[in-house]
């Protein structure tokens, strides 16, 4: 049976029966049906934004912050549109109305959303939207999180632009190390560079932030110990609330842990800096004298800076190759 397309909308609801004006995001891949449904919703006094696919819906959803998402299941069934969009708008409460064709199955995860099956009337659609809608609001803490996310994005963009404008390797890595320490809340941060002329298993302290370089000079360069190995091999991120309690900590002589006089470290975070071709340039390391100081957010930001640093290092190396000078041929001054 052909799909019923809503006819032109009737006159708006009479005065005295006016519904709350809502911001609606309508997702439907069929242009004729989408336009008709939009007219129905607008005739009910709603502000309507339309999207034809997943990408448009995600972009619009975070820009307009709708009160209600009205989504045709056929337009989003092949991708987790509803979950992805709601995740992006997690700090807000929005209603969801699913538009269904005949016996189209609904994913179990969407079973609690309001559902309406075609053919439906204008009044049925407006009633579902009104019943589902919640006022656009967010708690104070949620709004603070949203502002924080926006500030983080702006900061990371600024760092990316700053790093790509620098060609001298030490200068750009010092900037990346300083920025990463500030973003993560670390007491000190360091970038250890995997230099081609280093002895196997040893790395050069290239930049340091939050502590004088003299704090490391008397200890020599780190070895590829069990704690450092995952970072220097580019295998994974290491985050510990208390490094002194880690099973991998303190296994090897002569120090069996941090040598006497070392900067105090309880909270520990290490992120590999790896190129797209999987070459390990080195690692960003973060420390704090208090335990449990690095959160998942701190890890996420450190990873973002490490990715930007990897791009900048690759660019610096290519430029150095064109000039015929080795990249990373001098140590930073901290």
From TrEMBL:
Q: Which segments constitute the Response regulatory domain?
A: 23-133
Q: What is a GO molecular function of this protein?
A: kinase activity
**Keyword Kinase recorded:** yes
4-aspartylphosphate: residues carrying this PTM: 72
A Pfam family (short name) is GAF_2
Q: Superkingdom of this entry's organism?
A: Bacteria
Statement: the UniProt record of this protein carries the keyword Nuclease:
no
Q: Which GO terms describe its biological process?
A: phosphorelay signal transduction system
Q: Which UniProt keywords apply?
A: Kinase, Phosphoprotein, Transferase
Instruction: List the coiled-coil residues.
Output: none
Matches recorded under InterPro entries? CheY-like_superfamily, GAF, GAF-like_dom_sf, Sig_transdc_resp-reg_receiver
Q: Which PROSITE patterns match?
A: RESPONSE_REGULATORY
**What is this protein called in UniProt?**
GAF domain-containing protein
Per the UniProt entry, what species is this protein from, by scientific name? Vulcaniibacterium tengchongense
């Amino acid at each position: 049976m052909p799909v019923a397309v809503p006819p032109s909308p009737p006159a708006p609801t009479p005065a005295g029966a006016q519904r709350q004006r809502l911001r609606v995001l309508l997702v439907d891949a069929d242009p004729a049906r989408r336009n008709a449904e939009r007219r129905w919703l607008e005739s009910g006094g709603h502000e309507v934004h339309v999207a034809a696919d997943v990408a448009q819906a995600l972009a619009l959803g975070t820009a307009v912050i709708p009160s209600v998402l009205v989504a045709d299941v056929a337009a989003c069934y092949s991708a987790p549109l509803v979950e992805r969009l709601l995740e992006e708008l997690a700090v807000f409460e929005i209603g969801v109305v699913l538009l269904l064709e005949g016996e189209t199955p609904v994913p179990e995860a969407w079973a609690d959303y309001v559902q309406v099956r075609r053919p439906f009337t204008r009044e049925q659609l407006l009633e579902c939207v009104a019943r589902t809608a919640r006022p656009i609001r967010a708690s104070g803490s949620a709004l603070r999180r949203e502002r924080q996310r926006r500030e983080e994005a702006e900061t990371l963009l600024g760092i990316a632009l700053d790093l790509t404008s620098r060609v001298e390797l030490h200068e750009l890595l010092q900037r990346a190390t300083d920025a990463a320490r500030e973003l993560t809340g670390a007491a000190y941060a360091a970038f250890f560079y995997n230099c081609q002329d280093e002895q196997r298993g040893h790395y050069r302290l290239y930049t340091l932030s939050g502590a004088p370089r003299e704090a490391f000079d008397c200890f020599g360069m780190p070895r590829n110990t069990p704690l450092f190995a995952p970072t220097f091999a580019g295998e994974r991120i290491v985050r510990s609330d208390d490094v002194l309690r880690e099973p991998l900590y303190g296994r090897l002589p002569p120090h069996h842990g941090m040598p006497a006089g070392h900067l105090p470290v309880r909270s520990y975070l290490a992120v590999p800096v790896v190129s797209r071709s999987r070459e390990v340039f080195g690692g960003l390391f973060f420390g704090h004298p208090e335990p449990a100081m690095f959160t998942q957010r701190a890890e996420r930001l450190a990873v973002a800076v490490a990715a930007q640093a990897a791009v900048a290092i690759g660019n610096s190396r290519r430029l150095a190759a064109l000039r015929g000078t080795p990249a990373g041929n001098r140590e930073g001054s901290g």
